[in-house]
């Protein structure tokens, strides 16, 4: 079966300008329903962004249920009572044929929200469970749409700056940073709780966040086929390399590599998230790009230099050797980082004064500075600081991967990726967490019990560092915002 969507710009009768959009969608009725649900979900998300930007349009969702949208945004009637368009509204007519039965709906729309509303309305015509007014449509065989769009639609799309929505981002930015800092304060006040918090971090976040990576590479056939080498071949090469380092240099070499590589890995993840926030704030300003980069990187660099200058002898009860960094170099780096952050804050304050500041990006950068400053500079005990940044990084990664999968399957359960799409639904977030924790618990329990049975516990550092390094390499490969599928599911395409 084939179905299509055709957008005609201008008058329906003349159809002088025509553009094909998703011209051919092949598949059975079930797959077509899924495609429709995805269009509908994307349209709703974009429409919610419009609502947040233009509070006067709060009544619009009710109009969605009536298939008669009256927009009250800027540029509409100057009358205080804007419930009538006073002849200024534009009419857009959708002619659809579903299962051979014609349905015609007419609604009005201001051009500012054309794209989002078009997605919602088009999807509502072909999905069996979407109702607008008295029309309840079903998909049986083929669907062909002709959508008339006003030619003078020029208003750009509105962005909100949130990765998902205010509630999720408040938890993602503020909640996770507060959790990590609170744990750090607790350890500082009660050092005797360190081991308990360390084990809880490993079980609930550390192991779990590694499994979250595999939801991206092997939880469905398409992902596994695309990343087969990362799942089957790369682990063998990593284990061989880790064994070579362990038996030639010793455990200290693995721990030293881990210290600096995890610092780089954590910072690269935070960098990607900050770029996502900046990209989501196109209607606002993130400030001077070079100043932002300098401030962003100066704090982690100063932090790792400070750790190196302190030259701790152990890291997580394993011998460690750090780079030979003089104390004055670390002190200078910290002072320069503080100056860079201060200049960045001054620039952000100026943007705030002009009401141009990208708030989600701004708050995320603050959390980044706070975590790195506390973990690497404030705490003189490397283990305590590591727990702070490790909790932040792990929880952040788990939430981000879930958001990615949730957006990927925003339309609902995909029959082609049934398991992953099921656990990635919003209502099934608890199931996603349960699945990952169950898999990680089983995997690491089997690994530890096997090592005990074979009397290989002294070599468990090889196992843990092989898992960590494999995770770092896979992440560096699969999370590229410049790749269209990644940017689309993050919402910045």
Structural features, described:
- The protein has 493 residues and is of the alpha+beta class.
- The chain has 2 domains: 2-149, no CATH class; 166-490, no CATH class.
- 61% of the residues lie in helices and 10% in strands.
- It has 16 helices and 9 strands.
- The protein has a 5-stranded mixed β-sheet, with helices on one face.
- Helix 4 (166-189) runs antiparallel to helix 12 (382-408), helix 5 (194-217) packs parallel to helix 12 and helix 7 crosses helix 15 (460-478).
Number of H/I helices: 16
State the helical fraction: 55-70%
Q: Calculate the terminal CA-CA distance, rounded to whole Å.
A: 29 Å
List low-confidence stretches. 1-32, 55-114, 126-159
Largest sheet: 5 strands, mixed
- The best one-word shape is globular
Number of domains: 2
Rg over CA atoms, rounded to whole Å, is 27 Å
Number of strands: 9
Order of helices and strands: EEHHEEHEEEHHHHHHEEHHHHHHH
β-strand percent reads 5-15%
What would you call the structural class?
alpha+beta
- Average pLDDT, rounded to a whole number, is 74
Strand order of the largest sheet: 2-1-7-3-4
């Amino acid at each position: 079966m084939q179905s299509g969507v055709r957008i005609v710009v201008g008058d329906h009768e003349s159809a002088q300008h025509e553009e094909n959009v998703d011209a051919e969608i092949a598949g059975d009725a079930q797959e077509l329903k899924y495609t429709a649900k995805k269009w509908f979900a994307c349209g709703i998300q974009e429409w919610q962004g419009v609502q947040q930007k233009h509070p006067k349009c709060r009544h619009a969702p009710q109009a969605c249920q009536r298939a008669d949208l009256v927009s009250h945004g800027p540029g509409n009637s100057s009358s205080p009572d804007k419930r009538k368009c006073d002849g200024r509204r534009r009419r857009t007519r959708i002619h659809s044929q579903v299962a051979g039965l014609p349905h015609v709906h007419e609604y009005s729309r201001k051009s500012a929200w054309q794209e989002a509303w078009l997605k919602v309305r088009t999807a509502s015509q072909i999905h069996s469970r979407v109702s607008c007014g008295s029309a309840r449509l079903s998909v049986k065989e083929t669907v062909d749409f002709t959508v008339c769009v006003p030619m003078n639609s020029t208003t750009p799309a509105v962005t909100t700056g949130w990765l998902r929505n205010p509630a999720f981002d408040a938890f993602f930015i503020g909640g996770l940073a507060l959790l990590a800092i609170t744990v750090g304060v607790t350890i500082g006040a009660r050092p005797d709780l360190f081991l308990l918090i360390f084990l809880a971090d490993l079980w609930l976040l550390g192991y779990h966040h590694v499994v979250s990576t595999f939801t991206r590479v092997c939880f469905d056939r398409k992902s596994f086929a695309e990343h087969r080498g990362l799942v089957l071949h790369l682990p063998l090469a990593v284990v061989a390399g880790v064994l070579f380092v362990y038996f030639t240099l010793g455990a200290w070499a693995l721990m030293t590599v881990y210290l600096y590589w995890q610092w780089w890995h954590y910072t690269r993840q935070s960098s990607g998230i900050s770029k996502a926030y900046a990209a989501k704030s196109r209607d606002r300003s993130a400030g001077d790009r070079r100043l932002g980069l300098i401030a962003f990187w100066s704090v982690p660099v100063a932090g790792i230099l400070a750790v190196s200058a302190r030259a701790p002898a152990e890291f997580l009860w394993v011998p460690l050797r750090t780079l030979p960094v003089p104390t004055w170099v670390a002190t200078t780096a910290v002072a320069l980082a503080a100056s860079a952050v201060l200049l960045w804050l001054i620039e952000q304050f100026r943007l705030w004064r002009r009401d141009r500041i990208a708030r989600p990006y701004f708050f995320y950068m603050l959390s980044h500075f706070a975590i790195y400053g506390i973990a690497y500079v404030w705490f003189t005990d490397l283990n305590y600081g590591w727990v702070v940044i490790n909790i932040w990084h792990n929880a952040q990664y788990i939430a981000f991967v879930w958001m990615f999968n949730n957006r990927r399957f925003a339309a609902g359960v995909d029959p082609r990726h049934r398991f992953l799409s099921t656990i990635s639904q919003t209502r099934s977030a608890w199931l996603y967490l349960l699945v990952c924790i169950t898999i990680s618990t089983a995997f690491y329990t089997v690994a530890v019990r096997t090592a005990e049975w074979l009397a290989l516990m002294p070599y468990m550092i090889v196992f843990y560092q092989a898992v960590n390094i494999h995770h770092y390499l896979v992440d560096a490969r699969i999370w590229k915002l410049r790749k269209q599928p990644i940017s689309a599911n993050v919402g910045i395409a």
